[in-house]
Amino acid sequence: MTAGVHTTCPYCGVGCGIVATPDGKGGAAIAADHDHPANQGRLCSKGAALGETLSLGDRLLHPEIDGQRVSWEVALDTVAEGFRKTIEEHGPGAVAFYVSGQLLTEDYYAANKLIKGFLGTANIDTNSRLCMASSVAGHKRAFGSDTVPGLYEDFELADLVVLVGSNLAWCHPVLFQRLEAAKRARPSMKVVVVDPRRTETCDIADLHLALKPGSDVALFNVLLAGLAERGAIDRRFVEQHTSGLDEALAVARTTDATACGLPSAEIATFLDWFARTDKVVTLYSQGVNQSSAGVDKVNALINCHLLTGRIGRPGMGPFSITGQPNAMGGREVGALSNTLAAHMDFGAADVDRVGRFWRAARMATKPGLKAVELFEAVRAGRIKAVWIMATNPVDSLPDADAVREALRACELSIVSEAIRATDTVDACRIRLPALAWAEKDGTVTNSERGISRQRPFLPPPGEARQDWWILSEVARRLGHGEAFAWRGVADIFREHAALSGFENEGRRDFDIGACATLDDAAYEALKPFVWGGGSDKRFFGDGGFFHADRRARFVATKARFPVNAPDGARPLILNTGRVRDQWHTMTRTGKSVRLAGHRPEPAIELHPRDAAARGLSDGDIAEVTSAWGRGVLRVHVTDSLRCGEAFAPMHWTAQVSRAGRINAAVNPAVDPISGQPELKHTPVEIRRL
Ligand code: SF4
């Protein structure tokens, strides 16, 4: 092992290994971990700049109530008493947690156990709802479990990689580097990018399908029908391991290919390459998930892999790449309001099983509210106490001004946060200082099911504490001390592992029960490992799905378009996303001057014809208005997007750029199954200021 502390990058779902060497003055030298299987010695610009983000000047270091510093005793007593009183007067449905894919698995586990097992409600949702909830629901419909079948190395082994709704080059740069290197070494490998925008990812594309926004289901239905017509069917796999093909095909065959807005020759080329290539990986991300038809998009593309039997074998399969560093750990502990711990659900048997394991005092028996509806309930006064941990919903949720209003009006609003000045901290009454990356201790799971340790290498600043400790102290004050009497993160990890193996016997994909016997030293030394799968760590290569009949399901997906369509008043479609060198609401990356240099201010990208029609030139300042709100951004004229569409990054907050906070204008429509917001399709108008 290289000298220094081996830990994991806190940004994206690639989950790169990092070696941090403290300088003894509060800083650290950051280097890539050559031994980590995810990055194998690589880092991207964000990971490499982590050493520039360790200063403490912006940190929340002491508990506060109504702007006044208080002791931990007072803060914790107030939180516990507030929850006790609210539940007593209004029932468990009047309280909620909103947590984060930035939490470590152990913190995530503690939050879920407290609210679902001891407060009696599943009103806990995570910002991962904005990231991959559609993928979770699509996996469950197809596989009977929320399982990512393949591994990162499949991108390198494939002969055709289809990237759908993913700007991999900017959002998961190390995976892009791996793909780019594989293509350079083997130029016959083909890459297809399916994205309305021509992003940097297209630099390695052999074919860019700049489809009409929201038409992904139509495209994959056309592909499914075309593959069947050409006889590109793995009949043995379909007959032995699936059901529902006839219904899915019948719907696919009715799909109008022109709905995609693509030249028919491009669709024909895509079909031809997909039909002729055995080793195909379809990687997808937020362009698929963040949609009111997100779950159908996921199933439409999975259908094509089931038809061809290309799943769970080297170089083959659908692959959901998550945005958050620990979205997958959140899925494992059941951090979504509609899931239970250890990949269990709200069926009676699972509720009973988890309740017995936890010796729950008051077990939630039904799913809770999903992120957008949760904050609507806060705004309507149905939720009277909300505790937010490690996330900034006042900027990151759609219709963001309504979220701010909701929090300001809430009777008891609590935030656990590392940073002193965020728009969510400003809106909350009780502020609890939490440890940040470099100080906290635990595990994370990356997009290929790889569990890695995140280790502390700097001392805790001020009075900041780790989230699991804060939660345990509140639980103790509510009379549940015994169930939360953990001595440290190793105790929590062992309990989490034991629950995954509890009465499992192959029923559930997630089973790390063997880790329940790790002693403290073994946990401390834990090396990255991928959970589940067969001997090669992949799932489903030879069936073995998790529906009761062990078959996968084709899902009939009828193409439908975004909920809010452009009209004469708001004729442009606003798409939101990320830029290369910023992360979420910039609380960490915003501290690096080097990173800020890439995109120093919020900008709205516009097609030259749309800009000309509005008298706008590159560099002008423009107002973006929707039915929900507005933003003010600098205009960047580019032909990298389709005429009629606009793109803006989601990172800027009121702390940095009061009017550049684009989620104030984004519509709150959600997928009816996953509850994931349609962050990529809001009708807007844009005018010069
Ligand atoms: Fe961190 Fe993701 Fe970059 Fe890896 S690719 S260094 S995990 S931001």
Automatic annotation (TrEMBL):
Q: Which cofactor does it need?
A: Mo-bis(molybdopterin guanine dinucleotide); [4Fe-4S] cluster
Q: Where is the signal peptide?
A: none
**Highest rank taxon of the organism:** Bacteria
Identify the keywords attached in UniProt to this record, alphabetized: 4Fe-4S, Iron, Iron-sulfur, Metal-binding, Molybdenum, Nitrate assimilation, Oxidoreductase
4Fe-4S Mo/W bis-MGD-type domain residues are 2-58
> Which family does the similarity line name?
Belongs to the prokaryotic molybdopterin-containing oxidoreductase family. NasA/NapA/NarB subfamily.
Protein name as annotated: Nitrate reductase
Tell me the organism's taxonomic lineage. Bacteria, Pseudomonadati, Pseudomonadota, Alphaproteobacteria, Hyphomicrobiales
From which residue to which, out of the full length, is covered? 1 to 689 of 868
